[in-house]
Amino acid sequence: MSKLEVKNLKHTYSDGQRDVHVLKGVNATFESGKMYAIVGESGSGKTTLISLIAALDKVQDGDIKFDGKSIHEIGESQFRLKYVNIVFQAFNLIKYMTARENVEVALDFSGHGKDEKTRAYELLEHVGINRDKADRLVQKLSGGEQQRVAIARSMAGDVPIIVADEPTGNLDEKTEGKILTLFKELADKGKIVIVVTHSQKVAKHANATVYHMKNGTLIKR
Ligand SMILES: Nc1ncnc2c1ncn2[C@@H]1O[C@H](COP(=O)(O)OP(=O)(O)O)[C@@H](O)[C@H]1O
Ligand SMILES: [Mg+2]
């Protein structure tokens, strides 16, 4: 079993005029095989926290540890490549590529051994994107299908942590449920899954702790 620990994480933005203390000492523990939710109002610091966990922003104060090893020890770029993948609300796919090519790019980065085309098809099949759709430009897919592609891409590197920032924010309710089921399946396979959301309804899908982001800290629900 693997463990991700966030320890007394603090983060401040400065716009030159004044400092905005967004994270004021966040503590949380996440274990493999579970899907967690972080709920909070808009502007409460959810994206800031998840960007730090995904090593997209530099830790200013406090620590992030995987299996007892600090992100500083592992190295931020190594952490970003080998430990964590992020799924965004806006999917962030490359629009002029097919679904398969979007997944292949991620396989390239991960230095996967197996034939990348075959592996990309497999990953897409797994999230319900058949070969016909896999060979379509992603801009010709529906929002729900695009998010499935993004999830397949997040699985490409076979990293232990998947974080998602409002992953169903652009989707209808029925599609939302299906996408959340996919995240739950990733957790069942042994990943640490963290879904950030402003929606209590989405948070109900979590099968582990639901954290509430308030006043710059995380409170267990
Ligand atoms: N790069 C930035 N520079 C300055 N302020 C920022 C920056 N990113 C976010 N903020 C501010 O930090 C606060 C938290 O933002 P964010 O983490 O995006 O919250 P959430 O995802 O919960 O909506 C907001 O007040 C936001 O305006
Ligand atoms: Mg946000």
Written account of the structure:
The protein is of the alpha/beta class and 221 residues long. It is built from 9 helices and 10 strands. The strands form 2 sheets. The chain has a 6-stranded mixed beta sheet with strand order 6-7-8-3-9-10, sandwiched between helices. Strands 2-1-4-5 form a 4-stranded antiparallel beta sheet. Helix 4 runs parallel beside helix 7 (143-156) and helix 5 (116-126) crosses helix 7. The radius of gyration is 17 Å and the shape is globular. Bound molecules: adenosine-5'-diphosphate and magnesium ion. Adenosine-5'-diphosphate binds at residues 13, 15, 20, 22, 40, 42-48.
Main features:
four-stranded antiparallel β-sheet, six-stranded mixed β-sheet, alpha/beta, 10 strands, 221 residues, binds adenosine-5'-diphosphate, 9 helices, binds magnesium ion
Class derived from helix and strand content: alpha/beta
Q: What is the number of beta strands?
A: 10
Question: What is the first-to-last residue Cα distance?
Answer: 23 Å
The ordered H/E elements are EEEHEEHHEHHHHEHEHEE
Largest sheet: 6 strands, mixed
Number of helical runs? 9
Helix content: 25-40%
Average pLDDT confidence is 94
Bound molecules: adenosine-5'-diphosphate, magnesium ion
Q: Which runs of at least 5 residues are low in confidence (pLDDT < 50)?
A: none
Overall morphology = globular
Output the radius of gyration.
17 Å
How are the strands ordered across the major sheet?
Answer: 6-7-8-3-9-10
